[in-house]
Amino acid sequence: MSRETPITSAGSLSRPAWRGWSLFAILAGWLILFVVLPTLILLVYSFFRGGNGEVEPAFTFANYAKCFRAPYPAVFGWSLAYAALTTALCALIGYPVAFYIGRSSPARRNRLLMLIMIPFATSFLIRTYAWMTLLSHDGLVMYLLRVTHLIPLIFPENLQLLYTNGSVLIVLVYSYLPFMILPIYGSVEKLDESLIEAAADLGAGPFRAFTGVIFPLTLPGVAAGALMVFVPAVAMFAVTTLMSGGNIRLIGDEIEFQCLEGGNLPFGSALGMILLAMFVLSFFLFMRRGAGAKADMMR
Amino acid sequence: MKIFRPLILLILPALAILGCDRSKSTAAAKSRLQLFAFSSYIPQEAIDGFTRETGIPIDYEVYPTNEAMLQKLSANPDHYDVIQPSDYMVEHLVARHMLAPLDPHQLPHLENILGEFRGLPFDPGNQFSVPYMAGTVGIVVNSDKIKAPIRGYKDVFQEKYKGRIVVVDDPREMVTWALETAGIPINDVTPQTLARVKPTLVEWVKLKNIYNSDDPKPPLLSDDRDLGVIYCGDAAALWQENHKFKYVLPAEGAHRFIDNLCIPAGSKHKAEAMAFIDYILRPEVSKMISDKFPYTNPNGAARKLLSKDQLDNPASYPPGSAKLEIFRAIGKASVDLQDMMSEIRHAD
């Protein structure tokens, strides 16, 4: 498939060690400076005593103990639930879209992909505010519902779209949908046409060919998409408070509140460390299951 | 692509060297005033005006709450030159010896501050703080939608207004309203008083309120909400927009706040900081603040420059004599308070 790449890069790889290492050094330096070091600082802070805007150097497990007292376990639970629901909806909506794009002609495909990417040119927060104007009481959606008389007929007069759990979910799905579409598209595009033809030759109808051949082959794309949606969705903040009017506060919002407004950096750090531990754990579980599934398919 | 890689390798170290060089030279050459203040509270024109006049550039960094400010100031005690703490935070900072005493001789415009804003309990001698703006937290009512009389918190937090209320997103504020409702002094925050007001707060939180401190105006303007318990500056802006937004000081009593300008003890540019504070005290500069952020201006000379419409705004300058209370520092009790509010809000 990508037979061209090795040929063109072969010339520039005459001294691979030197170039490779220097590129790696930049990446490693970046990671150490902006990922590893800040995480270590958080780790240290999470053992300090804090609150009320003050930080006292100490060594206490009190912050971690507090993470396991009400309401925080429930907050973690709700964050996981919202992320799982977002992932499921993204997969449900994203799969047909990705499949359609992947099976279109190359020219059309690029145009459609552009459409998926264009929203990224605008800041994420601005897009969220755009949703707020759309869904507000005097916004476009409510206006259309009123002119079409759907509001007294089907929906109640006092219908509230913005500042509800639904509006939070809409924006979560909207924001993460491209991260589901792109990896699925990647695996749909790589589908081997001859396998589908073979399925048809062996008497499988379109449905059977999809469930038996196409879907299993695109599953790695779905898995990658799920990971790319679920992991950031768990730690999502700001959008949830904006869209729910502060009624839904997930773990990301709680960490932000404790670190900034609440003035309790040590407790916020402890919550962050637990979230990080959850990520690492779920990532490894995911990888192991992924590897298991691959081994199954080989067999 | 092939050209890019070596280029990047060349450029990155060059940038790093340039970066180091710049930070060194700016520190040595010109003193920049580090202003650390609440977000959307100081008009950019006022800041630019000071730089134009004195040649001193200002770095304006913002914070959302007093506690967030304290956290950063404690971590960098010698970085900031002018900060903007509220009343109770001034008291706390004075007790911790984190503020520099002000020199009245360098503040000739201090006399503009009205008597009622001087010598308040958080800084009795006005040794460390100069009032910037004051205000109250009160009730705003969309009188087109709400016909029933609204006099206090009890009238706002009713079952029939479920999903109609927007409130300031600050745990201590909501607890304060519950304390006022129960007739407890608002600075009497102990585990016992918190336990007493908890059932009230549980009921209030069930009403699907919107919580927003940064900008509670949009849901009221778009009719998504009809009632609010918000800062008077936002209520005044709503009134300017449409006189249907009435401001009511709660009958049970209201929280009054006074935000101040102070100089941290570790500031390296105290003379410049003093010049900035005096500049803000000038009537025409202070008027500029009132034009943009219609809180209660403590500057008597500036009030004389305000229009009749501005002075008639009931949210900025409420008529009558309501019961007003100022926050005092409550120390570790604030952690209990926050924990209780987190628990109540997540339980819903």
Brief synopsis:
Chain A is mainly α and 299 residues long.
What order do the helices and strands come in, and which of them pair?
The complex is a heterodimer of chains A (299) and B (348).
Chain A lengths: L3 H9 L3 H30 L3 E3 L2 E3 L5 H6 L4 H31 L3 H12 L6 H12 L4 H8 L2 H4 L11 H25 L3 H9 L4 H29 L4 H6 L6 H9 L5 H34 L1
Antiparallel strand pairs in A: 1-2
Helix pairs in contact in A: 2-14, 4-9, 4-11, 9-11, 10-11, 11-14, 13-14
Chain B lengths: L3 H26 L3 E6 L5 H11 L3 E6 L2 H10 L6 E2 L3 H9 L34 E13 L10 H4 L8 E3 L3 H12 L8 H15 L4 E2 L5 H5 L5 E5 H10 L3 E4 L5 E8 L8 H12 L1 H10 L7 H6 L2 H5 L11 E3 L6 H15 L1
Parallel strand pairs in B: 1-2, 1-3, 5-6, 5-7, 9-10
Antiparallel strand pairs in B: 4-7, 4-8, 4-9
Helix pairs in contact in B: 6-7, 7-14
Q: How does this model look, in words?
A:
The complex is a heterodimer of chains A (299) and B (348). The model of chain A is unreliable at 1-11 (pLDDT under 50). Chain A is built from 14 helices and two strands. Chain A starts with a helix and ends with a helix. A two-stranded antiparallel sheet of chain A has the order 1-2. Chain A has 299 residues and is mainly α. Chain B is of the alpha/beta class and 348 residues long. Chain B contains 14 helices and ten strands. In chain B, the strands form two sheets. In chain B, strands 4, 5, 6, 7, 8, 9 and 10 form a seven-stranded mixed β-sheet that branches. Mean pLDDT of chain B is 90; it is low at 1-29. Classes of the chains: A mainly alpha (299), B alpha/beta (348). Chain A binds chain B through residues 12, 19, 22-23, 26, 51-55, 70-71, 74-75, 132, 136-139, 160, 162-163, 241, 245-247, 249, 254, 260-265, and chain B through 2, 5, 8-9, 12, 63-71, 74-75, 163, 166, 169-171, 208-212, 218-219, 222-224, 331-332, 334-335, 338, 342-343, 345-348.
What is the gyration radius of chain B calculated from CA atoms? 23 Å
Name the biggest interface.
Answer: A-B, 34 and 42 residues
Percent of sequence in beta strands of chain B = 5-15%
Give the oligomeric state. heterodimer
> Biggest sheet of chain A, strands in spatial order?
1-2
Tell me roughly what share of residues is in helical segments of chain A. Answer: over 70%
> Quick one: how many beta strands of chain B?
10
Write down the overall mean pLDDT of chain A. Answer: 88
- Given helix and strand content, the structural type of chain B is alpha/beta
**Largest sheet: number of strands, sense, barrel closure of chain B:** 7 strands, mixed
Q: Per DSSP, what share of the residues of chain A sits in E-state strands of 2 or more residues?
A: under 5%
Poorly predicted segments of chain B: 1-29
Kindly report the average pLDDT value of chain B.
Answer: 90
Per DSSP E runs of 2 or more residues, the count of β-strands of chain A stands at 2
Radius of gyration of chain A: 24 Å
Which descriptor suits the 3D outline of chain A? globular
**What's the number of helices of chain A?**
14
Largest sheet of chain A: 2 strands, antiparallel
Distance between the termini of chain B: 55 Å
